[in-house]
Design a protein that fits this description.
2 domains; alpha+beta; 374 residues; five-stranded antiparallel sheet; 7 helices; 20% strand; six-stranded mixed sheet; globular; Immunoglobulin-like
């Protein structure tokens, strides 16, 4: 005869068994849900010690084919972080209408000794693969650059984003994600070209690019005046915007001739704090004087943080004791032909003290943005 206490023990055991069965079933079904392709619960694991960043990119217009759109950098924070896994870049569809995708791109190693394939392979309309062929022993930077986009005529307006993955196979919902970056914005139309910068102007591509990136601006009459000179304040603003630096606004001005109500006050203070620009021995900045070719080379080298490199052929008019010798040589060499930051004239000179023209300044800033700089 089963006692009341015995019946209670049997009932308790049955309840516990049922609870464990339900928990086990829930755990299994949860695991299946996580493993289901494209499942809402699937999550992407961040790749340790690798980051992805985008350099400033311009607007691209609906239906406008092959617009140049900056570059994307994949940076190893520690050597071997990518560990021979390929890099994949998926261009995200913008909204619900119109596919935005890369028409083409190039990739190169801007720093370190990682080895990659020469040409990124297109795996799908919106997916590119950069073949990683080695494990780095020096923390390396890979740059996808010379990117062109196609925008459908009915594409939704807004950001174009790129997901950057690291994987041995085509990315799935569970593929490790390096990061997501915004690399362009789809707009109704591009800004009209400056009337004094025709299609055959030697700097037209750089000027068009920076105009639509809102880094350079024209004059009230709509012209750009490519042969006009650039002031120190104007070029400082261009350099700060190209680097995407967050503007600061200190209570006390650093230079007596750049008061808080000066139009370029925040840009100049930001550049000074970042070590990009310096004043003169008397403590002034002289924002309204023309910036020289030597100064634009020095500003870009400091802004990017290039390691100084004085190897290679020298300009005959830039002796070793010139104040900007190291920066000019570095800007001439880095990141290497054909992507050099500054060039000389046909006679081999650099003319460091000549004032830089607006077209020359735009070209230097454009090269800093587009080419694979570490």
């Amino acid at each position: 005869m089963v006692t009341k206490a015995g019946r209670n023990r049997v009932l308790l055991m049955l309840i516990m068994s049922l609870v464990f069965s339900i928990l086990a079933l829930w755990a299994v079904s949860g695991a299946v849900a996580l493993a289901t392709p494209n499942g809402q619960q699937a999550t992407q694991a961040q790749v340790a010690n690798v980051t992805a960043t985008a350099v400033v990119a311009p607007n691209i217009a609906r239906g406008d084919v092959a617009r140049l759109v900056g570059n994307i950098r994949i940076v190893e924070e520690t050597a071997g972080a990518l560990d021979s896994r390929d890099i994949w870049l998926r261009i995200q569809r913008n909204g619900t209408r119109g596919v935005i995708y890369t028409e083409t791109m190039e990739a190169s190693v801007a720093r370190g000794n990682l080895q990659i394939g020469e040409i990124p392979m297109r795996a799908a309309p919106d997916l590119f693969r950069i073949r990683v062929e080695s494990t780095s022993t020096i923390a390396s930077t890979v740059v996808a650059h010379l990117i062109f986009y196609d925008a459908a005529a009915d594409a939704d307006l807004g950001d174009v984003t790129v997901e950057v993955f690291s994987s041995e196979t085509t990315p799935t919902p569970a593929t490790p994600l390096i990061g997501t970056v915004t690399n362009a914005i789809v707009v109704e139309q591009l800004l009209p070209r400056f009337p004094d910068v025709p299609q055959d102007h030697w700097a037209v591509e750089a000027i068009d690019f920076l105009q639509n990136a809102r880094i350079i601006h024209g004059f009230p009459d709509g012209t750009f005046r490519p042969n006009a000179n650039v002031t120190r304040a104007e070029f400082t603003k261009m350099a700060v915007e190209a680097e995407g630096l967050e503007l600061i606004e200190p209570a006390v001005p650093s230079f007596p001739d750049v008061p808080r109500d000066h139009w370029a006050f925040r840009y100049i203070e930001t550049a000074r704090a970042a070590g990009i620009i310096e004043g003169f021995p008397d403590g002034t900045f002289r924002p309204n004087i023309n910036v020289s070719r030597a100064e634009i080379a020095a500003i870009v080298v400091r802004a990017v943080g290039f390691p100084i490199d004085t190897t290679g052929d020298r300009f005959p008019d830039v002796p070793q004791d010139h104040w900007a010798f190291e920066e000019i040589m570095t800007a001439r060499i880095s990141p290497g032909p054909p992507n050099i930051i500054v060039e000389g004239y046909p006679d081999g000179t650099f003319r460091p003290d000549n004032p830089a023209s607006r077209a020359e300044a735009a070209t230097v800033i454009n090269r800093r943005i587009v080419f694979p700089i570490p």
